[in-house]
UniProtKB/TrEMBL annotation:
It holds the Pfam family PAC2. The lineage of its organism: Bacteria, Bacillati, Actinomycetota, Actinomycetes, Kitasatosporales. This is PAC2 family protein. Residues 277-341 are annotated as: Disordered. InterPro entries: Proteasome_assmbl_chaperone_2, PSMG2_sf, Rv2714-like. It comes from the Bacteria.
Amino acid sequence: MIELEGVPELVDPVMIAAFEGWNDAGDAASAAVAHLDREWKGEVFAALDAEDYYDFQVNRPQVWLDGKVRRVTWPTTRLSVVRTGGDKPRDLVLVRGIEPSMRWRSFCNELLGFAHELGVELVVVLGALLGDTPHTRPVPVTGVTSDPDLAASLGLEESRYEGPTGIVGILQEACTHAGVPAVSLWAAVPHYVSQPPNPKAALALLNRLEDLLEVRIPLGELSEDARAWQVGVDQLAAEDSEVAEYVQTLEEARDTAELPEASGEAIAREFERYLRRRDGQGGPGSPPAGQDNGPYLREPGPRARPPRRPGGGQAKDSGAGSEPGNGPEDDHDAEAGPDSG
C-alpha cells in the first residue's frame, strides 16, 4: 500500500499524464503537462524508482554542476499536484516522465496505486503522433476512450484500434481493467516538420483539455510561441517550392473534407499506414535507427506525397506514434491520430 506524506486531501482530483518517446511527436504532450506544472507551480510529491523501469543505456542519466558539486539526474517519472483557479477549483495530479523501457504492467500498477490513494476520479493521458496535416490549419485533437458510456457522455471516440501500442495505450487499458475512468487526447503533428518543440500542438492539447475538464488553463506565452512557430515553418516552406506545393495539397484536402478534427477511425488508418512505412523503425515519433533527427523541415519525399488526398505520414521516433486506438488510435486518418490505448 502506498503511503503519501505531505499531500493534503485533494478536491475532485484528475490525473493528467504524458510520456516522452514513442507517443510524443514534437514533444507536444510532455510540453503540455510541463506547461501545467510550470503555470500552476506544481509540487513534486513522488518519483518512481528509475532502476525498476529504465534502461540507462537507452535513457542515460545527466550529469550537471551545482556550483562546484557534480550531481546526477536519473531518468524517471515524477508526480506533482497543482490546484486550478476559478470559482470551482480542483486538483490535478500531473504525471510526467519517459516511456519506460521495461515492466510496463508494474509501472502502470504503481501509477494506479497513487491514483487510488489520492482519490483520482478520471485519468487523462496526452499523446501526439505524426500525420498528413498542414501546419497552417488548426491542429486536430482527438479524444478516445475504451468506455462506451464515457465516450457518449464526453463526446469522445470509442477506441477500436488493433496493433502495436505505447505506454499511453497500456496505461489506458490498465485503468479500464481497474475500473478507473480514462481517456486519451491525441494531437496530430505535421510529419514534414516533426522536430520538437511544437508549441502549436501543445496549445491544441491544452485547449482540448480545458474543454474536457471545464477549467481555465493559463496559457502564458504559449499562444505567442505557437504563432512564432507557424511563422517560422511558413518561412522554411516558402524557401522550397516542392514543400510549399505539398503543404498546399494538404490544405486543399483538409479544406475539402471540412473536418475540424480527425475522427478516431481516421487516426487509426493513418497510424496503420505509418506502421507499414516505417520498416522496423523504432516508433512513430522517431527517426530511423542510426539516423539523427535530420533537418528541421523534412522533404516530403515520394512516399509521403500521395496523388490527391494524403494518407500516411512519415514519422520520427520520438513520439509520433501512438497507437491510435487507444488514444488516438481510432483517429488516425484524417490528420494523424492517437493511440489511446
